[in-house]
Amino acid sequence: MASVQMSNQLRDTISRNYKKQLHSAYRQSRNVQPAVDKIVEAMQTNVFKEYVDLSTRLELIAKQLTKKYHDSKSQYGQYHMNFQEQPMTRPREEMGIVCNPNRPSSDNMTYSYHWHMPDTHQEAREDYKNGVEYVDGDVGVQINDLPNYYCPVKTQVTYMTGWGSDERYCPHADNAVFIVTDPEICEALMPIGEIETKVNEDLSKFNEYIKKITTLKRFVDEWPGGKELVPEEYMQRMAKKVVRAKSSAVTPEQIIPDELKEHMNEVILTNKLLGDD
To answer: Fewer CB under 10 Å: which end of the chain, C or N?
Structure first.
């Protein structure tokens, strides 16, 4: 059995998974998730659901055909396929929306493909200076690390524009945005900015903590529930050998927010995190 070292790649993977859990926990505690669910439901028309089902079936068939018709004798190995697998759609983890209760109700749950807030910078394109498909009161919101969902159009809000010294805050659509005018949903999404701030703060503390951890066993010993953030292949590798490690000066219970503890209660909380010695 071999000791599993905490490589930078493993740290990055654990950190990304932790970030997803933070987003999920804070969306639940701030009651944002129900609003997100309503938006996803509006995106997924019946016709699109049929398309996703068909796409999923075709992808499974494509994988079978790829395995059957690959050239096993090719010098390029498994990457040389006579049958080309081409999945039709992919699940997404992010969402770009524009909230504005003052827009016409007919705009609710529709797409805007060129939305751009007014850009008054001297280097801005002329057609951006007054905004594009912009209505006074529009607020661009980018939501990340969502549970996988399907949507017919990729939506994303990019907050910054320009380069170098000319970079500036000017939200705009990257591909498309989803317009939301429903007052209740817009209000429910207001904590998104606060959530992003909290996630970044908590993630920074977590990264500082995990940076000092040298082995996977030490990480799991100090936070048994943390194994839910670790890819299974690493857990299997670690199971081959038990490695003793010293305790850390900083413990997970000092940096993991209460919202995340509650959200991951069944799989993450341990006696140590609960304060039981």
So the answer is: C
- CA atoms of 273 and 184, how far apart (whole Å): 36
d(CA 208, CA 125): 41
CB of 151 within 8 A of CB of 39? no
Q: Taking Cα atoms as reference points, which of 255, 262, 267 lies closest to residue 210?
A: 255
Helix (H, G, I), strand (E, B) or coil at 100: coil
pLDDT digits (tens, 9 = 90+) for 156-184: 999 999 988 889 999 999 989 999 999 99
231 vs 236: CA distance, rounded Å: 9
Structure token digits, residue 232 = 């299974």
Q: Which two tokens stand for residue 252?
A: 């997970």
Measured from the Cβ of residue 218, the count of other Cβ atoms closer than 10 Å reads 19
Q: Which has the closest alpha carbon to 139: 74, 183, 85?
A: 183
**Quick check: 129 and 120 in contact, CB under 8 A?**
yes
CB 131 within 8 A of CB 93: no
Q: Give SS3 for 277.
A: coil
Predicted structure pTM score: 0.75
pLDDT in tens, 16-27: 999 999 999 999
Residue with tokens 């000319």: 166
DSSP-derived letter for residue 81 is B
